[in-house]
Amino acid sequence: MEANLKIGPKVGYFNVVLASFAHFCGDFYCNILPVLLPIFALKYGFSYSQCGLLYMIFQVTASFLQAPIGLYADKKNLGFILPLSILTSGVLASCVGLTDSPVVLVIIIFLSGLCSSGFHPIAGGIIPHISPKDKGVLSTSIFIVGGNVGFAIAPFITALYLEVFEVEQLAYLAIIPILTTVMVVIRRLHVKTWQPKPSETLNLKIIFHNKSFLYLVASIGLRSVCYCALVIYIPLLFTSRGISSVSASAILMTMLIGTAVGGLVIGLIAHRFRMKTLIILSYVLTIAMMIVFLIKADDSILSFICIFTAGFGLYGSTPVAIVLAQRLLPHADSFATSMMLGFTFGIGYILSVFIGILADFVGLHEALSIFIFPSLILAILTVLKVNTVKAV
Questions:
Q1: Count of other CB atoms within 10 angstroms of residue 370
Q2: What does the pLDDT look like over 194-205, one tens digit per residue?
Q3: Contact of 383 with 215, CB cutoff 8 Å
Q4: Region of residue 169 (left: phi > 0; alpha: psi -120 to 50; beta: else)
């Protein structure tokens, strides 16, 4: 890499942790919408399908724009997008309660998703350059765990906040992304001092000829079907069985906390195992736990343990997959990250819609079983085709 005369961010865990907190902030504001949907449904008279469409507008916008942003960020200096994304997406999400117009609400949600799409590719592309030597997977795990925790606790914290304050007063929460943006700028995380040589510049031909990278994307995408389906349908599954919404929310939060722990723990032990082996083992663990969880599907201690462990396996592969993707596509850290954290989840959310369609005919429990297990088995078979010898 060629360095210019700019002073970039320092290498070290302080900046890695700051990037992780920025990820916490970004993903927290990405997941306050589900708690607000009942309020919006009552306020605007939205149907269930309209509420679902509102959620999909945000998720699809936030997910699929990451790949082109990442592709361009590896060629040009787009570091300024990092603080801009944290600031605008967080402030916009905080302001959803200030409007009385459903049209303005949709516009705010769309713009918040649009602005948040710039965070993962830019921040993920910075991590390899601020992580201590030979600690890339651990640093990526620390970065990932911040987002997982933010995403996991957002609905619960937002619900508690709304017990005390009105929805219009969510705007006060804008102070957190504002302060986070200031810290990111002070620590110069937005300053890029590395540029690929012309011969290293990524293009579509290189991507489509890299079969191992494409197999990895397909495998993580199939895994994301399971993750996204559980995020969307766990509350519906439990309430359909007469279990309280509080228990349903607790189960979902338990799974999301499991994803945070899994990402961190597997990052800590990643140097002892082959990356592909860790990904496969995480899939196998998820399959085993999901079998028990779907057999029980209640609010017992065993169900909580199983869904936590399933979450551990579901997301434990993510930091490893990001680093493996970056090695399979050298000099394309932002694009590789955007594919693992954006595109694959976009695919997962879209395919999860078909679970809901099938559930209307055969039941939600049966539809989850029909989709989840074949998806994870196919994910294992696909990742086996990844040639890690090319991951230099």
A1: 14
A2: 665 554 566 677
A3: yes
A4: alpha
